[in-house]
Specification:
Low-confidence stretches: 180-185
Distance between the termini: 115 Å
Radius of gyration: 31 Å
Bound molecules: zinc ion
Oligomer: single chain
Mean pLDDT: 85
Number of strands: 7
Order of helices and strands: EEEEEEEHHHH
Strand content: 25-35%
Shape: elongated
């Protein structure tokens, strides 16, 4: 069986292996060697991922639970403006002791490697349709301009001309009433 080389997200668990009830907590701060995520937004290479993890020794293996923090960046899905935001996820997974059954996550000699676990949790939590702001109006379908950048005058001109005529009519002052009542002696 292939034994991957311990990576930046590997945590030594030698002191709690096969000692159910033992527990310890560890913090990691790892600059990413490569980009994580393939969507409109992703975690860039060099972005730091911070992990707070609690490792508990149980009969079947090591239970890892914790929180991962980072920042994602990319483009607004509507107007392509750059977007950037923090991301925080919780995770929990049992790293089983190697045995007859194949497990997705296993204790490897004296360590557990949290990389796949943390990576999947973070990448799956990234927004599929990121927006620069909740009401981003996107791009003009004809000109490709950002609608949010257009001055107010443009949107006023788009009012239906018939409605514009009505608005002018109703704002004219009413005439004639004063003269009628005041002319009789
Ligand atoms: Zn936008």
């Amino acid at each position: 069986m292939r034994t991957p080389r311990p990576g930046a997200f590997s945590v030594l668990v030698r002191d709690i292996v096969r000692r159910p009830g033992e527990m310890r907590e560890t913090e990691l701060d790892v600059p990413l060697p490569e980009r994580w995520g393939e969507g409109l937004v992703s975690l860039d290479a060099g972005e730091h991922v911070q992990v707070d993890v609690r490792l508990e020794s149980v009969h079947e293996g090591i239970l890892a639970s914790g929180t991962a923090f980072s920042n994602y960046s990319g483009e607004c899905g509507r107007c392509l403006r750059p977007v950037e935001a923090p991301v925080e996820v919780e995770f929990q997974e049992l790293f089983a002791y190697p045995g007859d059954e194949a497990n997705d996550f296993e204790v490897q000699d004296d360590h557990v490697d949290l990389e796949t676990l943390v990576r999947d949790a973070l990448v799956l939590s990234l927004p599929f349709q990121p927006v620069c702001r909740p009401d981003c109006p996107g791009l003009d379908p004809d000109t490709g301009e950002r609608l949010a950048d257009l001055p107010d005058e443009e949107s006023r001109q788009s009012i239906d001309p018939r409605w514009a005529a009505l608005a002018r009519f109703s704002s004219e002052p009413a005439e004639g009433t004063d003269d009628v009542s005041g002319s009789q002696t």
